[in-house]
Design brief:
- The protein contains 4 helices and no strands.
- It has 75 residues and is mainly α.
- It has one domain.
- The model has no long low-confidence stretch (mean pLDDT 86).
- Keywords: Membrane, Mitochondrion, Mitochondrion inner membrane.
- It is found in: Mitochondrion inner membrane.
- This is Prohibitin.
- Residues 6-74 form the Band domain.
Amino acid sequence: ERRLRDIYRHLGKDYDERVLPSIINEVLKSIVAQYNASQLITQRERVSKAVRDQLVNRARDFNILLDDVSLTHLS
């Protein structure tokens, strides 16, 4: 209950809509920068796992629990 109050006070009612896009951009830029274009395709599973793991960890910093992350289009 205290966490919910803190989240609401600091981030507002629509915190997930404000926080998630910035976290997603941050994580994607960080991960994608580690690979060249062909590696992003050939190592898609590794890239997806890295993105998933980092998104889950970053979201946790904001008390957001991500159950699943899926990269549906990588080109």
